[in-house]
Amino acid sequence: MLRLALLGLLGIVVLVALSKVLRRKSPAGEWAVEPVGPLSEPEQVLYWRLREACPEHQVLAQVALSQMLRAKRGANRQATFNRFSQLVADFVVCTKAFEVVAVIELDDRSHDSAARAAADKRKNEVLAAAGYRLIRVSVSKMPSVTELRSLLPAADAIAATPSDAPPRRIRA
């Protein structure tokens, strides 16, 4: 009986010690993270080409779709929001008043996976439902500045706002 009690006590001590080791904080504190650049090398190349192709526009990188879309009021509002809230646009080209002109997606080999294809399908559908123009380009066939200009609407066809104009107010 004493032996069983000692084994039980030893088991508890081992579990407590093990739980403390497992809960030990990483050297950086609570967060086990490391910094990375916000854009991959191909994304940086496309970013600078977009900037050159669209000098009168703002080019935003890595924009959460939840910053560009709002689920309509109704019974399924939260479910609708959940379907796009974790999706990110690689690039968003905007007028100086931050009206979206086009969303640019840079596709690499990772887009061949089934999970990624499903996310791409949701992104295509939700952006189309909102009326945004989506342009997909392949990293293996990176478009030149001239090709990007031909893919995007002509600058004079876009209601470009002068840079000194106040930002457009959007109701929340």
Shape, principal axes of CA atoms: elongated
The CATH topology assignment of the domain at 41-157 is Endonuclease, Chain A
Along the chain, the helix and strand elements come as HHEHEEHEH
Proportion of residues in β-strands: 15-25%
Low-confidence stretches: 158-172
* Continuous helix count: 5
Instruction: Please state the second-level CATH architecture of the domain at 41-157.
Output: 3-Layer(aba) Sandwich
Cα radius of gyration in angstroms: 25 Å
What can you see in these coordinates?
By secondary structure, the protein is α+β, with helices and mostly antiparallel strands. The chain has a domain at 41-157: Endonuclease, Chain A, CATH 3.40.960. It contains 5 helices and 4 strands. It has helices spanning 2-22, 41-53, 77-84, 114-130, 145-151, and strands at 58-64, 88-94, 100-107, 134-138. It has a 4-stranded mixed β-sheet with strand order 1-2-3-4, with helices on both faces. Strand 2 and strand 3 form a beta hairpin. Helix 2 (41-53) crosses helix 5. The relative contact order is 0.14.
Task: Based on the model shown, name its key terms.
elongated, alpha+beta, 172 residues, Endonuclease, Chain A, 38% helix, four-stranded mixed sheet, disordered C terminus, 16% strand
Could you provide a short overview of the structure?
With 172 residues, this protein is an alpha+beta fold. 38% of the residues lie in helices and 16% in strands. The protein has helices at 2-22, 41-53, 77-84, 114-130, 145-151, and strands at 58-64, 88-94, 100-107, 134-138.
